[in-house]
Amino acid sequence: MVSAAYSVVQTDLKTGVVVTVLPVTGITFTHSLNAAGSASVGIPLFAPEADPNSLSPGVSGLVILRDGSPVWGGILWTASADIAAGTLTLNASGYHSHYQGRNFVNGWTAKSLEQSTILKAWFSYFNADNGIGTDATGIAATGHLRTTEWTRYELKNAAEAVEELADNIGGFNFRYVPYWVTAGKKVGHRFTISSRTGTAPAHSLTHRANCNVTSVSYDSTALCTVAYATGADKGNGEKLVGIFENASLAARMPEKVMVGSYQDVKETLTLQDKAQATINAGAVPVAIPELTLYPDMFSPLDFVPGDYAAVDVDAGYVALYDEFVVTECATTIDANGTETIKLALASKELWSNANPS
To answer: DSSP secondary structure string, 141-185?
Structure first.
């Protein structure tokens, strides 16, 4: 199989119009589950394209192309010049990072609305006020109604609002997908959601057959027999509380309590969902494999965060044959154009419902 060819284009962040193709010395990019993801691109310090009047942190967009198709897009936030080595390193975060700097300055109220309708309204609101043109029109209905209510004094952060909406029983996984609006000239990006139940594994990964499982860790930090979720103050010094228990786990281990605080949640039912999500996420110890895919066998887009992969590894204490959710896909392209893809995964049970932060 012929190795893929990578390139990077600089874009106008507001319009997506391509400014120039950047000469690159190395590329690393990461797709992360329900997070912005990141990218690092090296270019020659003295290249004409390294123009501080055009290529500017906070202002410029970066889009990574694989065989001419966009596979990662985001915002240039920092640049580091190594004068001795003659290199400039560009560090970017995905489009979700834009919404970490946007707030509901006028407040927001939505009562018992389909959550896809709420999402579309949010992106429309921010696009209309000096935004980045995120396309959310294709979000499908989920069948789940939500209530979101913040005053203007709360200055609710937009990225946080999306993450919290996703992080519920009946919530969703989300990502931003770059695409050509006009090939070679203009890049757009879509906000898409998918069910937390994931999809059937499209790929089976076997240690020493098509991947190298480098490590597996086991973590009981999230184990929980009783979960409390506290919400907004009722006005008399008391807070709303949601409670959920795992009686079957309590029969096997001593009591272990987890408490989550959600100060802007004003409904007990939502807090009960949060508590139940904590119980679901803490039902079993979490197995966390990390692996490197064998070269030229897969594309980084073969493993979308939130989807499942079947993993087979037999190595002493580690005896796994199970489905795992992809939490991160990290791709590195060195100066010779060699592509290396690494995956981080987590137990399916952790993500099949919600895992409140």
So the answer is: P-S-EEEEEE-TTT--BHHHHHHHHHSSTT-EEEEEEEEEEETTT
